[in-house]
Amino acid sequence: MSAPKAFIIGHPISHSRSPIIHRHWLDRYGIAGSYEAIDVPPDAVGDFIASLRGSDFSGGNVTIPHKQAVRDLCDEVEPLAARIGAVNTLVVRHGRVIGRNTDYLGFLFNLDAGAPDWDRRTRRALVLGAGGAARAVVVALLSRGIPDIAILNRTPERAYALAADMGDGVSGHPMSAFIGLAPDADLLINATAGGMGGTSFADQPLELLPGHALVADIVYAPLVTPLLAAARKIGLNTVDGLGMLLHQAVPGFAAWFGTTPSVDAALRAKVEATL
């Protein structure tokens, strides 16, 4: 039996930290397997997925810009991935390609590790953004029973549409609604690209949040985004986005290589050193 093989596809792909994560675990657990980064342009993604059915790959990860396109190319898409509308993990079984989404698990496990019992203390959550990442975050929050989820977006129509799709307990708002919603919020999540590379988005008056509020960011480069820096400056608890990247990788590795890995300080330090 040949050693199991996995991959990550995207375009471009050189920035991905996933090879660092999975190769760390292959070494740590002494598994004779491989994990490679493959640059697949959008016009070739269909052929790539078709080729998996007769390949020796056990599966792989999917990153920008293929998460939505791949969803429609799988033989089967698991229900939560279908609801999120994106696939970031592929499992190949008996010539069939199965699509999963582990981003929502990465988000949850990251908060669990960084702020234990956060879900028991959260009644209202504010989610900045209405794209694919925001959709995964909202599904994650709903899975933990958060009763009041407000989606804020620069283009409010996108927030309204996502809220309507998510159902009861979820509402859509323009970004300006932050002022009225913040005083009763227990959790604020940035699910936009704002903060990536040190850039920032429209300033939010974080001082309107209650003192117990938790501020989380899905961006991990830089590790301390402008949003997190501002929150820490006024004494709010924060959770950075790196843990989401690390924890979302766990289910895929387990499916491809047969071992459920742990996210430890050594792995975090190895990835953090590249940021």
Structure description:
- The protein has helices spanning 18-28, 45-52, 67-71, 79-84, 103-114, 132-143, 156-166, 178-181, 226-233, 242-257, 265-272, and strands at residues 5-10, 34-39, 57-62, 76-77, 89-93, 96-100, 124-128, 148-153, 170-174, 187-190, 214-217, 237-239.
- The chain has 275 residues and is an alpha/beta fold.
- The protein folds into two domains: 5-101 and 245-272, Leucine Dehydrogenase, chain A, domain 1 (Rossmann fold, 3-Layer(aba) Sandwich); 105-240, 3-Layer(aba) Sandwich (Rossmann fold), CATH 3.40.50.
- It has a six-stranded mixed sheet. Strands 9-8-7-10-11-12 form a six-stranded parallel sheet, sandwiched between helices.
- α7 (156-166) links the parallel β8 and β9.
- α1 (18-28) crosses α10 (242-257), α5 (103-114) crosses α6 and α5 packs across α10.
- The chain is globular.
Summarize the structure.
37% of the residues lie in helices and 21% in strands. It has helices spanning 18-28, 45-52, 67-71, 79-84, 103-114, 132-143, 156-166, 178-181, 226-233, 242-257, 265-272, and strands at residues 5-10, 34-39, 57-62, 76-77, 89-93, 96-100, 124-128, 148-153, 170-174, 187-190, 214-217, 237-239. It has a six-stranded mixed β-sheet with strand order 2-1-3-5-6-4. Strands 9-8-7-10-11-12 form a six-stranded parallel β-sheet, sandwiched between helices.
